[in-house]
Amino acid sequence: MDNIAGTKSSLTWAVNISVVVLVVLWLFPTLGLLISSFRTADQIATSGWWKAMFPSEQNLVLRTGDPDDERVERDGVFVVEGNLFATGSEAEISVWGTSSREISAYEAGETADLGDGETMTVESNGDYVWTGDAEQLTGRGQRIFATAVTPPEFTLDNYKTVLFSGSPTDNMARAFFNTLTVTIPATIIPIVVAAFAAYALAWMDFRGRALLIAVIVGLLVVPLQLALIPLLKLHLGIGIGKGYLGVWLAHTGFGLPLAIYLLRNYMVGLPRDIIENAKVDGATDFQIFTKIILPLSFPALASFAIFQFLWTWNDLLVAKVFLIDASGETTVMTNQIVELLGTRGGNWEILATAAFVSISVPLIVFFAMQKYLVRGLLAGSVK
Amino acid sequence: MNPALQGLMTIVLGVGGCLAYFWLSNQVLDKVIFPARGKNIGKNINRANLIRPWLFLFPALFALGLYLAYPVVETLRLSVTERVPVPGGGGAFTYEFVGVDNYAKMMDEPKFWEAVRNNFLWLLVVPAMSTVFGLLVAQLTDRLKWGSVAKSMIFMPMAISFVGAAVIWKLVYDFRPIDQEQIGILNAIVVSLGGEPHTWLTTPFWNNFFLMIVLVWIQTGFAMVILSAALRGIPEETIEAAIVDGANPFQIFFKIKIPQIAGTIVVVWTTITLTVLKIFDIVFAMTNGQWETQVLANYMYDKLFRAGDWGIGSASAMVIMLLVLPILVWNVRTARREMR
């Protein structure tokens, strides 16, 4: 508000700070999902994603090597040596213990007396030395309760699971291509059909034109819930059944009112001179439409294409009703995520990754073509 | 056939078919039926021009009629019939007229009234909150240097599917028992302030609001974009005059700006209201209508596809249509007024 005379700088500060707060509020939920998708299941379960950026202190339960396999005799005592962590871990142990009741009994590097000459030494990097007689060093490995600081760690394993693994429930690759198969024809076909109709409504004179426009404005808001049963009945009746053709037709039908409305509003605004000059020069309506109107209407076509793309990509209901049959072969990503929510509601690493794969494409489209989306929104809301 | 190939063929056939239809039908009209030659040349051109608009309109009108207009009538018919399997008919059904029975049965169900109550709650809260937040962001970022970046961030959820948003917010609302570390940020904040963690989504009544937040989060961006453009469209002179008269920024906002964009606020409000009336995915994915969070669209889906009751399902769809009707009429009236 720098054009307001005498604006206090405190107000500018307040504005800046409140916008920062709002933006952070709006970004945080998505950021949480994004970060979680790069963490292991253990990490997600033991600490909040907002701690992922910092070294975290965790209470770990570790186990030494199996004494029956790994013990060696040295100077009359048996010794098991090794490292508690998997190779490559950069965790640092601060305190540890051998009982779940005293998990911080010893400092790192200290040697614990476990009674009757049995000892245990754990270094901060996880190296341990366990000594005792033959009877003490048998059975399973000794449990070590350690408090360790682990550096931030990220993994791409979740994306491997979701994109390339053979798991039928977790792998989203097929659903990804199914979604693409639904989306592209369902975006292109309504544009072609609507463009011709919009031209007629914008530039041709005929009786009932105003009425037709009113009808289209009315159809703009008809809830598609009404269409589900009658159209499913129709599709089953004429043999289309559930499948791609049905879902393409349905999306085309549902997208048409907005397409016609947006395109007509845009075409009406094109300069009348160009069209009349072309008519004088003997161009037919068909030529005017394909050679002049279509190229000039590109911004409006792009706006609608983005709308329709986002809508069909993100749709769940239409796909569930018209596409996905009992075999589940043609499942789309939104549907698979809902199923994952049901069966693997606690497996955040898979859920977060699957969801992020599904929202990444619309996000790319969104950021690349935001200008057209904004323009379409402004033209599309009935004023 | 490979679905991708099938998709490609559909694009080619669909687009090619459309273009071929338009071109051929125009050719037939101009060359065969009313040729622009001979002694009736003037009359023929006029006649052809009378018919041509309908050639351009036909595919769209056919699809609109079949996919939007016919279903309204058919749903109305189904809502007053009951689907009865034909004995020995091998999965065939007959539809018996039952009058308002379906509506009566629906009104006897507590779950229906729960859905109606929740839908009205959604209608009260979501459009209001989204519009207020949208207006707030639009105004705050109006003269900000990094305003467009901020707006872009708040607009972003518009691109995210309702299902994706459901997953995002389920992580926010995640609950762990008090002795464990909270991984949902909301409970983590509550615990760090000394409170007890809550299962936000299964606590009746209040859980509705936690679902609504998801839609507010998505729709605020929409409201912001439209209202931001409206704010930019306000004539500078009105604001300058107010400054000269000694108005403070708050007076300018509430007394000068808001009245001038009132029309746009109504448009934003009604558009979000339409979205709310049809809200399905968020509830379906997050609670599926359990714990008293049912809404009409999900109730309808339950009836149609889980209970297989087309009568009551259609009746509830008609209820949604009835709620949309006032907005439909209003939109048509404004559109017609603008055409004149």
From TrEMBL, chain A:
Intracellular or extracellular location(s): Cell membrane
GO biological process: transmembrane transport
Domain ABC transmembrane type-1 as annotated: residue spans: 176-369
SUPFAM superfamilies assigned to the protein according to its UniProt record, in alphabetical order: MetI-like (SSF161098)
Keyword Cell division: no
Domain of life: Bacteria
Principal location class: membrane
GO cellular component: plasma membrane
Any Pfam family hit: BPD_transp_1
CDD domains: TM_PBP2
Keywords tagged on the record: Cell membrane, Membrane, Transmembrane, Transmembrane helix, Transport
Residue ranges of the TM segments: 12-35, 182-203, 210-232, 244-263, 292-313, 350-369
Gene3D superfamilies attached to this UniProt entry: MetI-like (1.10.3720.10)
Membrane topology qualifier: Multi-pass membrane protein
Protein family membership: Belongs to the binding-protein-dependent transport system permease family.
Protein name stated in the entry: Carbohydrate ABC transporter permease
Organism: Maritimibacter fusiformis
TrEMBL record, chain B:
Pfam name, any one: BPD_transp_1
Listed SUPFAM superfamilies: MetI-like (SSF161098)
Every ABC transmembrane type-1 domain range: 116-331
Biological process terms in GO annotation: transmembrane transport
Matching InterPro entries: ABC_transporter_permease, MetI-like, MetI-like_sf
Segments passing through the bilayer: 6-29, 50-70, 120-141, 153-172, 209-231, 261-286, 310-332
Localization per record: Cell membrane
Topology class, membrane: Multi-pass membrane protein
Annotated Gene Ontology cellular component terms: plasma membrane
Source organism, top-level taxon: Bacteria
UniProt key word Transmembrane helix: yes
Gene3D superfamilies recorded: MetI-like
Keyword vocabulary terms for this entry: Cell membrane, Membrane, Transmembrane, Transmembrane helix, Transport
Family statement drawn from the similarity comment of this UniProt entry: Belongs to the binding-protein-dependent transport system permease family.
Protein's name in the database: Sugar ABC transporter permease
